[in-house]
TrEMBL record:
Gene Ontology, cellular component aspect: mitochondrial inner membrane; nucleus
Species annotation: Corythaixoides concolor (Grey go-away-bird)
Keyword vocabulary terms for this entry: Iron, Membrane, Metal-binding, Monooxygenase, Oxidoreductase, Ubiquinone biosynthesis
Pathway(s) where this gene product acts: Cofactor biosynthesis; ubiquinone biosynthesis
Name recorded for this polypeptide: COQ7 protein
Matching Pfam families: COQ7
GO terms of biological process kind: determination of adult lifespan; regulation of gene expression; regulation of reactive oxygen species metabolic process; ubiquinone biosynthetic process
Length: 193
């Protein structure tokens, strides 16, 4: 006991887990953490290739928001006691390769990747919002607020990609479809593994 005989208790960052649908919350936080981690790696790959180009500051601005998203999901992982996906080492490499590879196609290729990813993630966040609203909007108010804000950020990134000629990338529709299929597979796996 410290001086004075009063015990000190450190403040907990954990959320009371009574009454929450733990499997649903675990799945949501795990996959969103993995997605934000992957997004950070994609932007890191794009910056490695295009960081000193005219589009570098735009990519950096989007990456900075993704860093904030990842930081928040790191906090939520602890607060809700959720384990990360075991696939993080794979997403580390795959995200960077996707980012660098799309950037090697030039600015338009990088922006096409951004549009494809952010459209998929925005749709995914909308699905999670519907799930939480069906569960209990009041109980999950904070999580809903976070996911809505991040969805809006992802929509903004999507629109930035379109404004910067994403649709003029070589084989845009093929590239977009391939990236979105990969994104759906990553979501499916990260929710479960």
């Amino acid at each position: 006991l410290p001086a004075g005989g009063v015990s000190l208790r450190l403040c907990s960052t954990r959320v009371p887990l009574e009454g929450i649908n733990k499997p649903v919350i675990d799945r949501i936080i795990r996959v969103d953490h993995a997605g934000e981690y992957g997004a950070n790696r994609i932007y890191a790959g794009q910056m490695a290739v295009l960081g000193r180009s005219s589009v570098g500051p735009i990519i950096q601005q989007m990456w900075n928001q993704e860093k904030d998203h990842l930081k928040k999901f790191n906090e939520l992982m602890v607060a809700y006691r959720v384990r990360p996906t075991v696939l993080l080492p794979f997403w580390n490499v795959a995200g960077f390769v996707l980012g660098a590879g799309s950037a090697l196609l030039g600015k338009k290729g990088a922006m096409a990747c951004t549009v494809a990813i952010e459209e998929s993630i925005s749709d995914h966040y909308n699905s999670q919002i519907r799930t939480l609203l069906e569960e209990d909007p009041e109980k999950y108010k904070e999580l809903l607020q976070i996911i809505k804000q991040f969805r809006d950020d992802e929509r903004e990134h999507h629109d930035i990609g379109l404004e910067h000629d994403a649709e003029a990338a070589p084989a845009y529709s093929v590239l977009k479809t391939a990236i979105q299929l990969g994104c759906k597979a990553a979501i499916f796996l990260s929710e479960r593994i």
